[in-house]
Amino acid sequence: MIPNLIGVNVDDDNVSILFDAALSAGEQTELDGIVTNYTYVTPAPTIRYTSNVQPEANKYWSSTFTLLCDVPVDTEWTIYSIGILGFMDPSMTDYTIRISDALNGNQIGIGTYTNTGLTINTITGLTNLPSIPGVIEMSIKCSDANKNKPVKIKNISICYI
Question: Partners of 120 in the beta sheet?
Fold first, then answer.
């Protein structure tokens, strides 16, 4: 008799597999290999709200941090990630986006990018988020300052959970 699968229960990293009959030694060995290689993945939180922000300008070339935008922050929801849609000229080395709390100067997140095609670069793992309503600043710095070969930022999306 071929065993039929009744169900699979997963609780974090514990896996229980139920059959209506006993497995053969070979079937048990194969199943043990599958279960041993199982890795629990924490599901991403549900995004409750996304805010799209237009940058101050869409071309940047300064080798020091230059303001992209200021964003008011309401603490009703928590910022989960920030996505920046943009690209750099192929002759550049990289560019860096920094996110800071405007009221106390704490750095919230930072990312350095090298994409030369239009890409959404996501900054996650944000820390030092404001605990009271305030303003966050997003700034950009280019590795190679050249007005004729800028970084272009099209949009900024802020995802809240």
Answer: 85
Note the pLDDT tens digit of each residue in 88-100: 999 899 999 999 9
- The model carries a pTM of 0.68
Phi then psi for residue 34, to 5 deg, are -65, -45
> Amino acid identity, residue 6?
I
The position carrying tokens 């986006």 is 97
Candidates 160, 157, 158; CA nearest to 49 is 160
Residue with structure tokens 């065993």? 3
Q: How many CB atoms sit inside 10 A of residue 156's CB? A: 22
8 Å CB contact between 96 and 141? yes
- Alpha-carbon distance 115 to 49, whole Å? 27
- The Cα–Cα gap between 62 and 151 comes to 9
With vertex at residue 62, the alpha carbon angle to CA 58 and CA 66, rounded to the nearest 5 degrees, is 70
